[in-house]
Structure formats: structure tokens, C-alpha cells
Amino acid sequence: MTEDLIRTEPEEGVLSLVMNRPDKKNAMNMAMYGALESALAMADHDDKVRVILLSGSNGNFTSGNDLADFLAPSFLARESPVMRFLGTLFQARKPIVAAVEGMAIGVGVTMLLHCDLVYAGEGARFQAPFVNLGLCPEAGSTLLMPRMMGHQRAAELLLLGEPFSTSLAREVGIVNNTFPDGTVLASARAKARQLADQPAAAVRMTKALLKREVGAALLEAALHEVDCFTERLQSPEAQEALEAFMQHRKPDFSRFT
Ligand code: COA
Fold this sequence. Notes:
Elements: H1 2-5, E1 6-11, E2 14-19, H2 30-45, E3 51-56, H3 81-91, E4 96-100, E5 103-105, H4 107-110, E6 117-121, E7 125-127, H5 141-149, H6 151-160, E8 164-165, H7 166-171, E9 177-179, H8 184-196, H9 200-233, H10 236-246
Parallel strand pairs: 2-3, 3-4, 4-6, 5-7, 6-9
Antiparallel strand pairs: 1-2, 7-8
Bound molecules: coenzyme A.
């Protein structure tokens, strides 16, 4: 069951990892974080894997964290699956290529900030609706997004939390290149193969150098975000937002100050 939630397909130096929970638009639950973390950790230690290719099944990348899991008490405990996943993603030595089709929401956006090459379909839809849910951003995004795109653009994406297009994602640097819908995975796979043909040790060293400056600050920022996120999860605003999602209604934040 757990293996199914993350499909793994090895092929000529490229390990393909597919988030696979199509009935929930690939929303990430604890079991998926656990399976994805294990697959990433194994890939990083397996000499046969030179590049990791990350995508989602059935035309979507992921609709983000499973909203029901936000209510689990151990969700953000230091050793929880989500925290282990983020730690392994931050420290991955091998390059990660992402192929984004359909929806990339919440952690579906923030995990892309840690990938190395990101390709997206022209019709993909991105959204970082943390504030809309009464929460705050995670996965080091409050450090990385302003560095990547400047404060105002990061503030707009994170404070308003509106859906944004592939062309904007490309303009702000989250996405390398766009392709017609339905062709993204093949194009991303071709790039992953090209990368797998490069000298692997030089690739790993270059990735480490590219991430060196931000490394220590990233961990500190992500841990601070976790403390803030944990506080937010218990807030009346978040309770209202999560209840509203479950009840298929618009949240009403007007009574909170
Ligand atoms: N957590 C839990 N369930 C989710 C989910 C998520 N993040 N995203 C989608 N689902 C579920 C829906 O509840 C629905 O389940 P159901 O069939 O049992 O009712 C199913 O996936 C299909 O989603 P649905 O809402 O019917 O599809 P849609 O195309 O109308 O809308 C989304 C898709 C992704 C826009 C919408 O589901 C949504 O806004 N999800 C929440 C996204 C989110 O806030 N993520 C967390 C960010 S921090």
C-alpha cells in the first residue's frame, strides 16, 4: 500500500518517483511523506541512481499536505514523516528534476524550491495558500522565496495565496521551462537523462556548492517556521479554515482579530 502511494521506476541512472494518490489529487499524507523520504534516502545512497525525477500521477503534481493530517497531534514532531522528508530533501546530494502537471499546491510549491531543475506544463496551476488556511509558510520557503524573487513578489504569492500560472512561476524562477500539457514528463525525463550522462561526482559537488551558502540558514529558517506553523495549527483561524474545507464552504475570518 505504502509503495503504491509513491511509485518508483528506475531507468538508466534516473530514478522516477511518482506521488500517487490520484483520488485526492496526490495530497501528501503521512504514509506518502514516509515513503517519499525512504525513496529519496535510498536513491541518495544507491550508486546506480544518478538523478531523481519527481512527478505526480494522473495529471497533477500534488494538492499539498493532506488537510486532515494537519489535525494529527504528531504532525510536526521532530521525527514525524514530514520533518524527516524535509530533512532528507534539504540534504539530497543527487540532483532532483521535477515534472509538474496540473496542480502544485502548498508543499507542492515549496518542495520545488529544493529541486534543481523544474519543468511544468503550460496549464499547471501553482498556489501557496498557507495564510488562506490561517497557517504560515513552511519548508524554508520564507527564506528561499524572497531570495529568489524579491520581497514584494514573495509577499504577494504568500500573503494573498492566490493560484498562479506556469508563466508567472517561470518568471519568478520556480520553473526552468514550460512545455505543452501532456509532454512535460517526457521532456523532464530527457533532461534527467542528459544530467545522468554528466560526470556524477562533478554534478554532486556542484549541487553542494550551489546550496552551500544557504544550507545552515535554511535549516534554522525551516525549524523556526515549524514552531510558528505549530502555533498556527492551534489557532482559531486555522480551525475555521480547516472546518470550512471539510464542510465545503468559504471560511469566515471576520470575527478574529
Ligand atoms: N487534503 C485532503 N484532501 C484533499 C486535498 C488536500 N490537500 N486536496 C484535494 N483533496 C481531496 C478533496 O477533498 C476531494 O476528496 P473527496 O472526493 O473525498 O471529496 C478530492 O481530493 C478531489 O478534490 P476536489 O476538491 O473535489 O477537486 P477540485 O478539482 O474541485 O479541487 C483542489 C482541487 C486541489 C483545488 C481542492 O481540492 C483544494 O483546494 N484542496 C486543498 C488544497 C490545499 O489547501 N492544500 C494544502 C496547502 S497547505
